């Protein structure tokens, strides 16, 4: 989203130029996530604020599909009808399955008046969209918080498909597992998230080609966790092994992103309040190579990471000191 709140998509073309489109420009976009399938078609999900009168604001979410060469199609619907009492308050990371299905974690806040007190209820939901469908259906809904007063609480969520078509959903320090969409979930299993984690650190999970689940935990220092029991039957007895890529404590690396290359190596990108954007790769022998991405950027936040078929690492992040979105790439290691 640009400074005026308009939602833009940009595609780096083969000739080195960027092709940019504005998907909508009437509302303030506050959150966005995307996934691209092997054909090059992207699904972009966004959360925006719509002004309705002088004092009323309603947040709404939608997903659109398209590519650099065609028109973005009719939005896909997410969740319940939004109104002043029920609103989507945050989006997680969009995940793409091998069959074309989509997973989208999101949180819904509702409020009611009970004995002259406002009571907020926050639910974590995992939306699933099957191939060919035009809307997300709720595959799992969890009550994550209910309290009086005006709450700004938002859960920490991430989801991924495993190699067998099962689903893993990490939310607020608990891991929920299912053999597939529309099937029962088991959980919560103890996840690696620490109760001492900063409120704004977002955990992310990914599953490698061997079926091993990895999770990042932002904080000081950044940690990576491995969970080797990732095959059915799903159960709550999960053992995690922690690794630390070697980021110095002064990096304060939050909002980490992770991805795998064609050799199965795990890559992590993170930013810090007082540090520069950092890239770490886990080699086959278990040691981590860490490097700075950009020595000029100030506070780099909201990093995103993708690795193409040639193992070129592509990174974007937000430079808070200049107010710019930065794109960087690194040739294959």
Overview of the structural elements:
There is one protein chain. By secondary structure, the chain is mainly beta. It has no helices and 26 strands. It has strands at 7-12, 18-24, 28-36, 42-51, 57-66, 76-77, 86-91, 95-96, 102-114, 117-129, 137-148, 157-161, 167-171, 174-178, 186-190, 204-207, 213-217, 223-227, 241-243, 253-260, 266-272, 278-282, 288-292, 300-307, 313-319, 324-330. Strands 7, 8, 9, 10 and 11 form a five-stranded antiparallel beta sheet that branches. The chain has a four-stranded antiparallel beta sheet with strand order 3-4-5-6, with no helix packed on it. It is globular, with a radius of gyration of 20 Å. It starts with 6 loop residues before the first strand and ends with a strand. Residues 193-201 and 229-233 have low confidence and may be disordered.
Sequence-ordered SSE layout with sheet pairings:
Elements: E1 7-12, E2 18-24, E3 28-36, E4 42-51, E5 57-66, E6 76-77, E7 86-91, E8 95-96, E9 102-114, E10 117-129, E11 137-148, E12 157-161, E13 167-171, E14 174-178, E15 186-190, E16 204-207, E17 213-217, E18 223-227, E19 241-243, E20 253-260, E21 266-272, E22 278-282, E23 288-292, E24 300-307, E25 313-319, E26 324-330
Antiparallel strand pairs: 1-2, 3-4, 4-5, 5-6, 7-9, 8-9, 9-10, 10-11, 12-13, 13-14, 14-15, 16-17, 17-18, 18-19, 20-21, 21-22, 22-23, 24-25, 25-26
